[in-house]
């Protein structure tokens, strides 16, 4: 049981990091971002080149991934979503969904054309393993979990303790009220999208030694992120932490009891039941879109 609990928490930590960014963008901007997984891919590629080509120290590897995801996210927001907001007053959710699907397609094909389709990974970031009871945990998994939790802690402090973070909360709660209080919506929305992409990029970098970089690697993390977000409720940023660990534990126990091929079946069955019984999610409220 202890082995399963630890495995579930390690898995859930990455789900939280990915889903937090997805929930943030929907909560603030009402964008169902189906290109979120491609920023996970971008982070993995940046980490690979930082380690294998540029030979950067390990701490700098994650900084490069974070900054790269943040900048690319900001560029995409300013060049795509900012003009779309000015012209798309109705059907915003549908239009933004179609745009993110297009961005996903472009990023995947661009990666295939410029970086190739072969896997690019590293054998290990830090050699060795830690023994906990009968379980042996590689230091790479521990580092990945530590990076995820440290990132979430700093991100949470940013949201709660800074003026920009409070502005993000205000916009997610009431956009009109935030505008009346003098908050610049365009700046906050650009910042929000950039931060969301940064979180996904860090997740991709943290798991490089476990999941190598390749162009379509973002599909699975995207699906897991949506499982978490739907489970707790769209735009419910705080509950994402609970949902991420819950999905990680559910999948770990499902794999142990029924086999790896059943983990997605059980997770999806759970989500279907939640949607039938409580369409707004376990902790969600009806969204205004």
Automatic annotation (TrEMBL):
It is a multi-pass membrane protein. It comes from the Bacteria. It is found in: Cell membrane. Coiled coil: none annotated. GO terms for cellular component: plasma membrane. GO terms for biological process: amino acid transport. InterPro entries: ABC_transp_permease (IPR001851), BCAA_transport_permease (IPR052157). Its main location: membrane. Signal peptide: none annotated. The keyword Transmembrane applies. Pfam families: BPD_transp_2 (PF02653). One of its GO terms (molecular function) is transmembrane transporter activity. The chain crosses the membrane at residues 12-32, 92-111, 142-159, 191-214, 226-250, 262-283. Keywords: Amino-acid transport, Cell membrane, Membrane, Transmembrane, Transmembrane helix, Transport. Belongs to the binding-protein-dependent transport system permease family. LivHM subfamily. PANTHER family: AMINO ACID ABC TRANSPORTER PERMEASE PROTEIN, BRANCHED-CHAIN AMINO ACID TRANSPORT SYSTEM PERMEASE PROTEIN LIVH. This is Branched-chain amino acid ABC transporter permease. The lineage of its organism: Bacteria, Bacillati, Bacillota, Clostridia, Eubacteriales.
């Amino acid at each position: 049981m202890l082995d399963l609990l630890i495995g579930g928490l390690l898995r859930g930590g990455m789900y939280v990091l990915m889903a937090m960014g997805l929930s943030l963008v929907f909560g603030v901007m009402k964008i169902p971002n189906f290109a979120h997984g491609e920023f996970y891919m971008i982070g993995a590629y940046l980490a690979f080149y930082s380690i294998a080509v540029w030979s950067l120290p390990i701490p700098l590897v994650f900084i490069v991934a974070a900054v790269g995801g943040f900048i690319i996210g900001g560029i995409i927001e300013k060049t795509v979503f900012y003009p779309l907001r000015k012209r798309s007053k109705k059907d915003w959710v549908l239009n933004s969904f179609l745009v993110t699907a297009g961005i996903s397609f472009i990023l995947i094909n661009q990666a295939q054309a410029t970086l190739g389709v072969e896997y690019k990974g590293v054998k290990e970031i830090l050699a060795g393993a830690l023994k906990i009871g009968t379980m042996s945990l590689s230091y790479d998994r521990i580092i990945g979990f530590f990076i995820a939790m440290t990132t979430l802690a700093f991100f949470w402090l940013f949201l709660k303790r800074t003026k920009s973070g409070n502005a993000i909360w205000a916009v997610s709660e009431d956009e009109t009220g935030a505008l009346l209080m003098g908050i610049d919506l365009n700046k906050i929305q650009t910042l929000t999208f950039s931060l969301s992409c940064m979180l996904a990029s860090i997740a991709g970098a943290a798991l490089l030694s476990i999941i190598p970089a390749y162009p379509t690697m973002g599909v699975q993390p995207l699906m897991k992120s949506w499982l978490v977000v739907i489970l707790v409720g769209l735009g419910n940023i705080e509950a994402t932490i609970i949902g991420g660990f819950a999905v990680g534990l559910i999948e770990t126990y499902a794999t142990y009891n029924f086999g790896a091929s059943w983990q997605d079946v059980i997770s999806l069955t759970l989500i279907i039941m939640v949607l039938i019984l409580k369409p707004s999610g376990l902790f969600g409220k009806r969204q205004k879109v």
